[in-house]
Specification:
InterPro entries: HAMP_dom, HATPase_C_sf, HATPase_dom, His_kinase_dom, HisK_dim/P_dom, HisK_dim/P_sf, sCache_3, Sensor-like_sf. The protein is an alpha+beta fold. Helix content is 51%, strand content 20%. Strand 4 and strand 5 form a beta hairpin.
Length: 662
């Protein structure tokens, strides 16, 4: 005796059949969502820290500009020239000391025309030493106003005063967990400005020099941090930091230690040192500083000769973005979990509802098999099950009337079941097709919103970059060595702006202005224009327009964009030449017109056919992947359809079907 096989009710099968694809879809959505969110947050974080570095650089430059103005205007003050010539140290002190105090300068002094010090405000008792070898002062004595960043050695700092020499030494707190450097720096990094002092005739009588010491300058780095991050905090901790380096060694930072002191004496890592100080390029990445991971950006600080003498760095707590990613992942998981629970409930309910009439039919069939006749079903369902119930009633009545015709009735029943099965399969095919269309439209809408947001976010920094590049072009002469690099930056900025413009066109829902459009004339005009815009060497254009194709109602500019894009794609698909065919025909027994654009080019691989209308998908090295997506949206907005057929190596045919009335 055969063992009884395990039996599964149809309700269970229907429920499982519904839950399996639902569970797979939810899992894929969760994995894709987490990956996309993580990538998006990481990209935005890197862009943010690059932008923060730009702001920090501007704040650094603004402080240098302020120092420039102070020294320049002091040197140009009416009595400054006469006082320097007179050599009256008390008179010079009366002019320079209030300026140094009020403008918070660390050094301010005056030299005569030969470069000998007349008076220094930080060390009044020392004068007469020669500063003509200082490149800033030497150029100022030649009539220039010079500003920039420089390094003064310990010997020169000692002349300006013991206070500055003491400030230049960077202490290493005992509480710091990191290995201290071999020796604390004794040199000082300065914002330095020198300006000539002239008489009324314009003759150079001497020079003024002033500077701000950056070693241990907490107010300076705090000011830059306040400009960049505006006091933003996370769980009571500042999310951003600003740090200055002399060479590869930290000399000032906003990073606090647990003891209340500030981190000092750290060195740049070998990787950062190689990129920033040796290669003179920016570096963006993760760094472990203090007791936290930071997303940091570094750029070199250059001397007057363009030699890296230090670095400016900004950083943001990585935990800020980690918290954002975790919150978004939790929210996505919650939404998908709720969707899963709802799906399970709906699957169970629908399985029970669908299984009930089938179970009833099973019981009625058992009664008929037991010999009962004229058994009637009372199932009222407007679907194939309802049809099956009606056929069952017919069968039951036929059995009661003619038992001798049971074989013929069974045969008819089998044929009708096959017919209903074929209808069900066709309906399922149409449902799948409709579902794919809906998914494509929803994906286009979602990507459009994302593209609009990305374009908006990129436009602001790009405007700043373009403005700064244009200013840089004005300041760099045409015959300068680095003029070509500046022009290259400007061209690449314009290219990014064109890409952003394409994104905005893709994301923007343009209002359609319907008017009669003559398809044949429109296509002929497009071909004529293309001949003047794109070289057609080796390409033969064949036009077959049916006279039965009249006008359609739609936006002529948008339809021109669609067919121009298809014609250009056909031309670009034939780099070695070929035949480009344009054909119009009315669709038989319908109010539709069909436009075919075919080429004999390289064709499209089968695995890429389902992706050609997806945004940002392209096989062209310089393409953006938006042309066919925009064309697809325009055709759909006009109530039409667009299809593609392609054979690799033989060519591609695009078919656009449009209604006569939109």
């Amino acid at each position: 005796m055969n063992p009884r096989k395990l039996r599964f009710p149809i309700k269970t099968k229907l429920t499982i059949a519904t839950l399996i694809p639902l569970g797979v879809a939810i899992l894929i959505c969760w994995m894709a969502g987490v990956f996309i969110l993580s990538a998006k947050v990481a990209t935005q974080a890197q862009e943010k820290v690059r932008y923060d570095l730009n702001v920090a650089r501007e704040a650094y430059q603004n402080e240098l500009t302020r120092l420039y103005d102070v020294v320049k205007f002091t040197a140009a003050f009416g009595k400054t020239g006469e006082t320097v010539v007179s050599g009256n140290r008390e008179a010079v002190s009366d002019i320079l000391t209030p300026v140094r105090t009020n403008e918070h300068l660390d050094i301010l002094g005056a030299v005569d025309a030969s470069g000998k010090v007349i008076y220094r405000t930080t060390n009044p008792g020392l004068a007469g030493d020669d500063k003509s070898r200082n490149q800033f002062i030497a150029r100022a004595l030649r009539g220039e106003i010079v500003s920039g960043t420089t390094v003064l050695p310990a010997a020169e700092l000692a002349l300006e005063g013991e206070t500055l020499l003491h400030q230049a030494k960077v202490p290493v707190p005992a509480s710091a967990k990191h290995e201290p450097p071999s020796s604390a720096p004794s040199a000082g990094m300065f914002l330095f400005v020198a300006a000539p002092v002239r008489d009324r005739a314009g003759n150079v009588l001497g020079a003024l020099y002033g500077g701000i010491l950056l070693n241990n300058s907490r107010p300076f780095v705090d000011k830059i941090k306040s400009v960049v991050y505006e006091g933003a905090r996370l769980h009571g901790t500042d999310i951003g930091t600003t740090t200055l380096y002399l060479g590869d060694q930290m000399i000032a930072t906003t990073l606090p230690l647990h003891s209340g002191e500030r981190l000092a004496g750290m060195k740049l890592t070998r990787q950062v040192n190689g990129k920033v100080l040796l290669a003179k390029t920016r570096w963006v990445g993760r760094t472990y500083v203090g007791n936290d991971w930071y997303l940091s950006a570094y750029e070199p600080i250059l001397s007057l000769q363009g030699v890296p003498i230090g670095a400016l760095a900004v950083g943001m707590l990585e935990s800020q973005y980690s918290a954002v990613k975790i919150d978004m992942a939790v929210l996505l998981s919650f939404v998908l979990l709720v969707s899963c629970l709802v799906g399970v409930s709906m699957a169970g309910f629908l399985g029970k509802k669908l299984a009930h009439p089938i179970k009833e039919l099973e019981l009625l069939t058992r009664r008929v098999a037991a010999g009962e006749r004229n058994v009637q079903s009372h199932i009222e369902s407007r679907d194939e099950i309802g049809d099956l119930a009606e056929r069952f009633n017919d069968m039951s009545r036929s059995l009661a009337e003619r038992e001798d015709n049971i074989i013929e009735l069974n045969r008819n029943l089998e044929e009708k079941v096959k017919l209903r099965t074929a209808e069900l399969e066709e309906n399922n095919r149409l449902l799948v097709q409709t579902r794919e269309e809906l998914l494509r439209v929803e994906k286009l809408a979602a990507i459009g919103e994302l593209a609009a947001g990305v374009a908006h976010e990129i436009n602001n920094p790009m405007a700043i970059i373009r403005g700064n590049v244009e200013l840089l072009q004005l300041t760099v002469p045409e015959d300068a060595d680095n003029r070509e690099e500046v022009d290259t930056i400007f061209q690449q900025v314009k290219r990014v702006e064109r890409i952003v413009s394409n994104l905005q066109k893709f994301a923007r829902k343009q209002k359609r202005e319907n008017a009669p459009v003559h398809l044949n004339e429109l296509l002929h005009e497009i071909v004529a224009q293309i001949r003047h815009q794109v070289p057609l060497d080796g390409i033969k254009v064949v036009e077959h327009y049916s006279r039965a194709v009249e006008v359609v109602e739609g936006d002529g500019d948008q339809l021109r964009q669609v067919f121009t894009n298809l014609v250009l794609n056909g031309i670009q698909a034939m780099p070695e030449g070929g035949v480009l065919s344009l054909k119009t025909n009315p669709v038989q027994d319908t109010e539709l017109y069909e436009v075919q654009v075919a080429d004999t080019g390289v064709g499209i691989q089968p695995e890429n056919l389902n992706q050609v209308f997806n945004p940002f998908f392209t096989t062209k090295p310089s393409g953006t992947g938006l042309g066919l997506s925009v064309s697809y949206g325009i055709v759909r907005e006009h109530g039409g359809t667009i299809d593609i057929q392609s054979i690799p190596g033989s060519g591609t045919t695009f078919s656009v079907v449009l209604p006569r009335e939109a």
